[in-house]
Structure formats: structure tokens, C-alpha cells
């Protein structure tokens, strides 16, 4: 967790939906990340509970979002990834880059 003027600032949790999480969703995610950074948020948890599939456009949106947050000295965590999506992360070796957690609570506590 971050502190801001002695107040605890929790990470923002974005619940993703999509089957697959594709180009349109990736664009919306990137825009939301920019918007949150402008408002002072630097740490974001992506809740994948309702994401059944992901394609290359969706992966690109995640990479772009993570890069943007890293440049803003923040972080991105991924939580609740199902077996199919996790397989895509593993095949593309992105499981080695993204910090992934079984629950949203674990992801939030990692900041």
C-alpha cells in the first residue's frame, strides 16, 4: 500500500470482463490506466475472474498498461487468472514478467 499525506492509499482494482479480452478491451484498459495515473493512482490490480480467454491484442494492452505504470513509478498486479488464460501467459512467457496472484487480496497486499 502507498501512503499519501499519512493516509493509506489502496491500489485500484479493475475487474476485467471479456471473452476474449481483445483489441477494444485493451484500448479501454490503456485509457483507464492513463486516466487513473492522471488522478494520482500508481498501483493497479487487474481482476481476471470474469476473463475466459485472452488474445494477442489483450496481451499487448496488458504490457502497455504495465509499462505505463512502471514509468509512473507504480505497479500492476494480475489476480484470479483461470487455467486457460494462465496457459496463454505461460506459452508467451509473460507469466515471468507479470506478478500474478491467486486472489485480489493477495495482489493488493503485495504493494
Structure description:
The protein is α/β, with parallel strands linked by helices and 111 residues long. It has one domain: Transcription Regulator spoIIAA. The protein has a four-stranded parallel beta sheet. A hairpin with a 2-residue loop joins β1 and β2. α1 packs parallel to α2. It starts with a strand and ends with a helix. The N terminus is likely disordered.
The CATH top-level class label: Alpha Beta
> Helix-strand pattern, N to C?
EEEHEHEHEH
> Class by helix and strand content?
alpha/beta
Tell how many strands the DSSP assignment holds: 6
Average pLDDT reading: 91
Strand content: 25-35%
Task: Specify the helix fraction band.
Answer: 40-55%
Q: Gap between N and C termini, in Å? A: 5 Å
Radius of gyration: 13 Å
Identify the overall geometry: globular
Say which CATH homologous superfamily is assigned: STAS domain
Stated plainly, the CATH topology is called: Transcription Regulator spoIIAA
Biggest sheet strand order reads: 3-4-5-6
- What characterizes the major β-sheet? 4 strands, parallel
In short:
The protein has 111 residues and is an alpha/beta fold. Helices cover 42% and strands 27% of the residues.
Task: Draw up the topology in text.
Layout: E1 2-4, E2 7-9, E3 12-18, H1 23-38, E4 43-51, H2 56-71, E5 75-79, H3 83-91, E6 99-101, H4 104-109
Parallel strand pairs: 3-4, 4-5, 5-6
Antiparallel strand pairs: 1-2
Helix pairs in contact: 1-2
Amino acid at each position: 500500500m502507498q501512503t499519501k499525506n499519512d493516509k493509506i492509499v489502496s491500489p485500484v482494482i479493475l475487474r476485467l470482463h471479456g471473452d476474449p479480452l481483445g483489441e477494444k478491451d485493451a484500448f479501454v484498459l490503456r485509457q483507464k490506466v492513463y486516466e487513473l495515473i492522471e488522478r494520482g493512482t500508481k498501483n493497479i490490480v487487474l481482476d481476471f475472474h470474469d476473463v475466459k480467454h485472452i488474445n494477442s491484442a489483450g496481451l499487448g494492452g496488458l504490457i502497455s498498461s504495465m509499462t505505463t505504470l512502471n514509468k509512473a513509478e507504480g505497479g500492476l498486479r494480475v489476480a484470479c487468472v483461470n487455467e486457460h488464460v494462465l496457459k496463454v501467459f505461460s506459452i508467451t512467457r509473460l507469466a515471468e514478467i507479470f506478478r500474478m496472484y491467486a486472489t485480489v487480496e493477495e495482489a493488493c497486499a503485495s504493494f
